[in-house]
Design brief:
Blueprint (H helix, E strand, L loop, with lengths): L10 E6 L3 E7 L8 E8 L6 H4 L4 H20 L4 E6 L1 H5 L3 H12 L3 E3 L2 H15 L4 E7 L4 E7 L2 E8 L3 H7 L4 H12 L3 H4 L5 E5 L1 H14 L10 E3 H16 L17 H15 L3 E5 L3 H9 L2 H4 L3 H13 L3 H18 L5 H12 L12 H10 L8 H16 L9 H4 L4 H21 L9 E6 L2 E6 L9 H13 L3 E6 L1
Helix pairs in contact: 2-4, 5-12, 6-11, 7-11, 9-11, 10-11, 14-16, 15-16, 16-18, 17-18, 18-20, 20-21
Amino acid sequence: MKRPRKRATSVAVIDIGSNSVRLVIYESLSRNLTTLFNEKALCGLGREVQSTGLLAEDAVAKALTALRRFRALCRIQRVGRVYAIATAACRDARNGPDFIAEAERICGTRIEILSGPREAKLSALGVVSGVHKPDGIVGDLGGGSVELIDVKGNRVHSGVTLPLGSLALQDLSHKSLKRAERIVRNELSEVPQLKAGRGRNFYAVGGTWRALARIHIIQSGYPLKVMHGYSIPAADALDFAQRLRRLAAANLLANIEAVADARRPLLTYAALVLEYIIRVAKPKTIVFSTFGVREGLFYEMLPPAERAKDGLICAAQTMNGLLSRSARHAEELIAWTDRLVRVVRLRETDEDRRLRHAACLLSDIGWRVHPDHRGEETLSLITNGNFGSITHQGRTFVALSVFYRYAGLSLENEPPEIVQEMVPHTMLERARLLGAAFRVAHLISAARPGVLPATHFRTDGRKLMLVFEHRMVDLVADRVGSRFKQLARLVGRTGSIVRR
């Protein structure tokens, strides 16, 4: 007897942009979108729309070929539901409707042609889903347009769309940088959405701006290779954008190997738009976001209770469930460290607390690695992890906490200095403290649930005590005592074990 086929929970989005056509398949529609597959084809649909009003014939052929492949990939992956969207080039071109009709036939699904305001809103929702409590202006630079919209927390305001996408600007200016600069200056000088950006963040969304970030990461020797959440002070970003323009004038951009060939000619226009946004908006920091329209589309579909969840904690819970020996033990570790913080009266902000909770959830994910390499492997896994709702400084703190849990606190086993420098000294010391707490907790419990709730913290003056309930006293050993004394010293106390 054949078993009924399990219903597929995966979802996919086909994103038909002005420069690239992309397929992304996610494991499920949830607060923590986990990518199963991601592929793009640089087709350049919007290459000539501003000058001719038409999608270029060769670009259309290339895009339809990519869509046939994407449809086949969705079929072999047994995707549960496929969504499709199209942006500026398709909505602006006279032959856009004909292209969309053929694309819908190939994809087997309706394609939503996003209006400018709708595209801006989805970009902002993408940032809301991937940045913890965002506050600033979201700018989504595509091939055909740039969308600008104000976001604060989960509140999204009305947006504006301008024909300043990299391909559109190249087309409008007839590849003249002086003409392109005049166009950008005129379009951006009085945009109300930018006037509210002073002293806040500017969230840069879009592939060509990400390419700029990739170049900056390489040139600066930055230790993390994660694009999402990479931030640059606005003054530094302005200098960098101007330097890129000088390289373009000297015809030196062709030597940048970190960027795809098809995207290199567009870097100058992306840098130009960023430069004038900084001049007009006067933001404090440029933050690059890999979360944009696609993530915003799915975030919008979630029930309100799911949208309200913390994206970082959801991602950490997923990793905990997949990689730890016991998911429940990690939850008990959160409660255990909550009690420790409360008893020793350790001062924590809300952000400190959420980072500590994330570290608890990730504290056992390296157990399958060889013991000699668990520290460095988990350090790399967390600092370069594919999740959002955390700053680079925050992910470094979480990674260091788990590193110290595995590598210990001796000077011989310190993490690379370049990673330590990612966080201030007080944060580094807090990571050492949390790592020391993990070393005690995991030694006591062997990462099994039901043990930590039977241990309690007490204080007597400057003495910190760990009390074992009678049913758990056989777990007490000299090694447990020495590790607990080390933890107590880090909070300025003497430590002792008590058997109840």
